[in-house]
Amino acid sequence: MARKKIVLVLVEGPSDDTALGVILSRLFDKNKVHIEIMHGDITANYSIEPNDIVSALGDIVREYANAMHFSQIHFQQVIHIVDMDGAYIPEAFVIENPSAVKPVYTLTEIQTARPDQLILRNKHKQEKLNRISNLKKVWVSVPNQAYYMSSNLDHVLYGKINSTDEEKENNAYAFARKYRDDVDGFLDFISDSDFSKTGDYKESWEFIKKEHHSLERYSNLGICFADIRKERIEQQTINKTDI
To answer: What gap in Å lies between CA 16 and CA 38, rounded to an integer?
Structure first.
């Protein structure tokens, strides 16, 4: 029997895994694909320079493969889900607020006690995202695409921003419970909501980089599941016809 292909999903934290892990596993054919989720936001890692982001991504995939005794041919694809964190807003909308212990996000601005540092972070993140959004393959030959959550995953999935770690985890469990047995409901949600940017992948990335969109509630993750959704709808139509 042929070995299952690996879909490697890169998310930014454990609550992201909690929210999406089970749903992703059910979206992909378990007889053909094995989902493996890894955590970490390399776009916010200052030890990785923008010029090194492509090789850093390749290293993540290669190191995982070596640990599991895989090679490039064992991967179906890498799905990289990134938070935008308002990275592309004009500098004038990074507002100084001495009482902000950590950045406070709104739909129009970011308040921070250290605006110069946050502006530098945004520039750093922009340069990385520009490379990631155009990266078709990692580790030489493994298909790769990046999808965004704006301003972050909590904003897209739950309509909440500035959540505490405890709120993130509670919301993630609630979201997973809601959709773990309703894959089609999740596909409708991620593809047809007001925040959904579906259609052309390149255009979806061009959109999120403009104006205040990287702070507003948008995601292009539905593009990732377009073919799966189409196949499910077609199969449901066939099943109804056979009844």
So the answer is: 10
For 1, which DSSP code? -
Tokens coding 180: 């773990």
* Rounded-to-integer distance, Cα 108 and Cα 92, Å: 11
Nearby residues of 75 by Cβ (< 8 Å), 6 or more positions away:
5, 6, 7, 8, 61, 65, 142, 143
Q: Check residue 196 and report its DSSP letter.
A: B
Helices (H) and strands (E) in the chain, counts: 8, 9
Which residues lie below 8 Å from residue 89, measured CB to CB, with a gap of 6+?
Answer: 109, 110, 122, 212, 214, 215
CA–CA distances in Å: residue 105 to residues 25, 28, 184: 31, 34, 31
For 175-227, how does the pLDDT look when each residue is reduced to its tens digit (9 = 90+)?
999 999 999 999 999 999 999 999 999 999 999 999 999 999 999 999 999 99
Return phi, psi of residue 101, to 5°: -65, -40
Residue 242's pLDDT is 67
